[in-house]
User: What shape does this take?
Amino acid sequence: MTHDDSGDGADGPSDLSTEDATDDIPVMTYRRTFLKGSAATLGASTLPVSAVRASETGADRSEQQVRTDTGSDGMVSTVHPRATEVGADVLRTGGNAIDAAVAAQFALNVVQPHGSGIGGGGFMLVYIAEEDELYSIDNRERAPLGATPEMFLDDAGEPIPFKERITLGEAVGVPGTLRACDVALKRFGTCELSELITPGIELASGECSVTVDEHLASVIEAEREKFNDAARSVFVPDGEPLQAGDELVQPALADTFRQIRADGIGSFYTGEIATATADAVQKHGGSMTVDDLARYNVTIDHPDAGEYGDLTVRTQSLPSSGGLTIAQLLALLEAFDLGQYERRSAETYHRLIEAFHLAYADRGEYMGDKALVDAPWQGLLDAEYVDQRRSLIDPDSAELAGADPGDPWAYQPGDPYRVSTRKRSETDGSKRLKSPFQSDLGQTTHFTTADSEGNLVSWTSTIEQFFGTGIMVPEHGFMLNNELTDFDAKPGGPNQVEPTKRPLSSTSPTIVFKDGEPLMTIGSPGGKTIITTILQVILNVAEFGMSLPDAVAEPRIYADVDPAVVWEGTVPATARRQLGRLGHDIEETATPLGNVQAIAVRDEEYFGVADGRRDGSVIGL
Assistant: This one.
């Protein structure tokens, strides 16, 4: 096993090993060539990547350090070293990838309480090698029975401001994370939940020391005003927010974990914890009841599939828009042959941005919970429809900010049979509202595991914004999500609020296959930016021939249907100026986008990558 956290890396063609790379061979020579050979190339250039200077040309890689490791018997990659260690320990003692992922989730609830936990939900992809089958465990939060389409409107019928909306009891969806842990273990695991929650108890109680890192400290400072008294007592004791290096002890959370260990998940969904949860939600204006919690269950499904060259990209299906939107973007972009351009060129960025505008326009118009909404998924991916949408992209001018959605129903067999999309007119009051970028960034965590049998897990888990609603369940120590703010505040479309409905998500846990075999797992936090983050990492590998570390470190851009184009710090200034001249609305300052955890499946071993945009950690066995 090798483990390298240094900041040095190769700048040459990254689908070669570092000792074979030569500076005088053009990058184009290697575009997609790895797809015709061994998957081992994904781990080439195994040194972490960091920049040594700011660049006008963008010849350097990202300033973000990327951590890597290799192992033949397993791999764990999470956003926090403690959670990674917990998952790796499970693998060392005979657990499989599913066991390790569940243990890591409980640990993350403790060490990253602002990002995920039992008060939230998410989506989990599980590849079972013996069956050669990929499953998704959809544990997305659901609206309670008391939810109404108008619940995020004020007395004048206008949307409640987003910053207020995210703190309301109405924003809390019925949590699914704990149910997912239970179902995943019973269906695919080898360990008992009572075993796997124990490391989380040790971390929360202080038996195993946990200190506040810089990221958590900054989030506590930024979000402290929305905390209820219970949360304030933990994260802002005596009125002083916890600082980096302070010990983080959460005795109430430890007690809740002990209760779950002793009594099973029933205590959370029907017992005393359920009562406390419903009471906390109702105290803040929500309608959730114990019956809503008792009614909750996950769904086991199969992920959506998109194609790019000889890769098959499997990503979460609706109610996550990730699968359909990534598949549509891959189809839109493949014909451009982006590898003919420099990766950090205006030509590449321009085509990405215009494709983003088109795909997000369709996303907002047609997508919602597939249990209640009939999305035209065949039409959205139909070759003629994709060609028609692609033809709108002018290579010499930015024209598509604020683009109207297309008409995929014209390419879809049959007619919609559940919920029609909103009717539009010149004076349409229900027209899509511009979303604040804060809502687009919605925060979460992604982690991924692999074991010696070839099983893989790619799991994105969330409580939505940092610290969710800011509501901690008193005497129980876990934060409640604000996932229902992912519904449209104004009724009338496929993503309007309805009882028991799952709000539209962008969460995109992904497993990529080549020739029917797993090639890599990938995922990221970041709200609606998750989609473009995952897409760009895949393109970096498949179109530009990058190694997985380089693909993760490469700076990213983001745009949706709105005009603003968000960029990371090492996107070259020359490219940004050229994009501005084309007519793009380039934001004035850089913004970090995403935080990828990934595992490449190579010949006889795994190659793990943890993004350096936060304190990512990876351990191979």
User: Anything to note?
Assistant: The chain has a mean pLDDT of 88. The longest helix spans residues 346-366. The longest strand covers residues 121-128. The chain has 20 helices and 18 strands.
